[in-house]
Amino acid sequence: GAPRDLGMRWAGLVVLLLLAAAPLASAFKAHEFRYCHDTSFCRRHRKFDGTKPEATYHLDTLAHGEGGASFVGKLTNQMDADRPLSLTVTALADGMIRVHINEEGAIHKRYEVQDVLVGDTATKPYSPKPTLTIDGGVATVTAGDRSIALDLAPSPFKAVVSLKGVPVVALNSRNLMKWETYKDKGAPGALEDITGDNDGLWEESFGAHRDSRPKGPSSVGMDISWPGFKHVYGLSERASSFSLGNSKGAGAARDEPYRLYNLDVFEYDVTPDRAHQPLYGAVPLMLSHSAKHSAGLLWLNAAETMIDVEDAPNGKDTHWFSESGVIDIFIMAAETPAEVQGQFALLVGTQFMPPLFSLGYHQCRWNYKDEQDVKSVDAKFDEHDIPYDVIWLDIEHTVGKRYMTWDRHLFPDPEGMQEDLASRGRKMVTIIDPHLKADQGYPVFAEAKKLGYFVRTADGGDFEGHCWPGGSSWLDYLSPQVRDYWASRFKTENYVGSTTQLYTWNDMNEPSVFNGPEITMQKDLKHAGNVEHRDIHNQYGFYMTMATFAGHHVLRPDRRPFILSRAFYAGSQRYVAVWTGDNMAKWEHLAAATPMLLQLSMTGIQFCGADVGGFFYNPEAELMVRWYQAAAYTPFFRGHAHIDTARREPWLFGEEAMGRIRSAIRTRYTIMPYLYTQFHRAHTLGTPIMRPLWFDFPADESTYAMDDAWMLGPALLIKPVSKSGVTTTNVYLPTGAPGSPPLKWYPFKGSNAGKAGLFKKLWGHLQGTGGSQHAGGSSVNAESSLDSGAPVFQRGGTIVPTRERARRSTAAMMGDPFTLHVALSGGGEAEGE
Fold this sequence. Notes:
Shape: globular
Strand content: 15-25%
Number of helices: 15
Largest sheet: 10 strands, antiparallel
Oligomer: single chain
């Protein structure tokens, strides 16, 4: 989705010819978005330097909590001596540490994130019970044989987590903990901050928008250090390098903190000085890795959050601050990144197991205009022997952007259209956005209005803003009753024209509000329980997709849902796939897709992809081919385009380019057994499908900053081509830990190899997937012409199952035989699943 002024078709042949002939200038509008200098809580936390004794927090007491599983204490400072903070430390099962801080006796209840944590992992203590020892004023919590320890220094308060005696994460080591306690506006000190920056404490404006902030300042923050780590990762979603660059100090591209705040960003910029710019989703997870250890930290807060990153003498220093809520930190530490990912999955859940069809190729544009258009596109795929599984309909298929309706002039028989696609093993997806057109003649809106199910203004009335249909209201998905109502709308008797063959795309769910501040909702709007929008902003899309997921179960109780979402939060992987939003048909956006998808994958959002070809502008044939060749090896594989772009189905780029695109898409279907297995591992173990090279080769330090290649599962290494005119590509092939057997790598030749005779292909498989081999820890110049595609290597010691027969869809492949690509290790062995 894009801002409203781009939603209309440009009229006139001259304008269309100009559009086709010349690329448009970038339209990223920096002035529409806030930065730290526009944001009072950010200014205050950045100015706070920890040198004022009256603001320093001290740990006054520490004792066993109820049942002996946790340890509780009080944090106090001179400035707010009558407002102690409660500290609860828990050594959790599987060796994690939880540090929870809240305000005792607050005049307003602080919001704590709900529905993200799964099961009892976040409260279940380590067994046997952790021990508490106090020596020289330092309290140490130790969790059994995992050798996870938390040292708590009382004055000033500081906490250090160690793994086997080695510090991995330190809290408040720079004394930057700042907690703005709730106060009555007339109370002493309520109108001033210790930093002297008093603007914006009780109300704040941005452009024409005013935030009334009725409860006053309530931000929380703390510094978090990563001793011994040279790199930190995570903080999706943004168009940045995978290893997070400094946001301040030496090496910073711009003096601006990373920001987590879900926004509809039109034509986002991928240059390094825009790395701070938040995009459509937010996962407040940071990861670090060294040759000895891996660590992670989840900052469980759904309000707007800022994070500074800078170099430290021996590691990295970070500084986290959120506009409201509590400090609720989960620290994960283990010897390998796979273990840390498993710990995170225990907290927030694993990737939902998708239906097989959703792993195939998806064809989308804004918009396929009518039933005949859909029928023609579907037939052309078969005519040109190009497999695909799903065709998508954007907002124009509805009656005036009223979701869950069909324009019967354009789609007179939507049920028949869906069943016709299903007869060839294919599915359809329709878009359903959260904004409901304010029209009493629209049943979805009218019933929700009657039931009082919309987000409310600060004054208590139903909020109305502008989006694609014009005046609209937004359902309050924070309410379980509203989520149940939404789920019921997916019944075929309510969503008239739908069938069990229809799946869902939730877009614009940051939420996007065209006339709101930063194209989103005002922070002082109200949700169920009088929760302010500022407290749950980053969870709005999460809650919408939770409700849509429930709706799919209402419609198809015994079949797996498939939902694509643009907005997300930690735990969204339980419900949805995610794509990287409104990218552009530019080489630099193809290059940026790799670090963006690695970032998503390693923060739990594992079913992810980027729009093939770029959403905006018109890609040339070479760029289109290269994008297909890369995206065939990403978890989610969809072509999509803006309404004002030229049509770009694979057969519209000439016979030669079409053949290359066909080959790339067929490769996707060839590796389907292997890919499906990786999804199962993600679903059961939390293991990322697409991951950085250091995930599988954690001791190879040369991989720690690499983000232009990835591993697909444990066996395949992909290095996409993201520049024009390339015929060879330098590929680094990782090595194992010192002292381990030498690694071997082989060029992976699936059906994309194409022209070898049957005997030659079989002999290549027996020799190790192509005959030639390369040593780990070396770089090779691999052939990467447009015909040979992106270099793909198979790790020695692995077996990759494929299905080699060309079929029209995943459903048509179900009975096909398997081919096993065996790549032998140095010891002559191989294994696979």
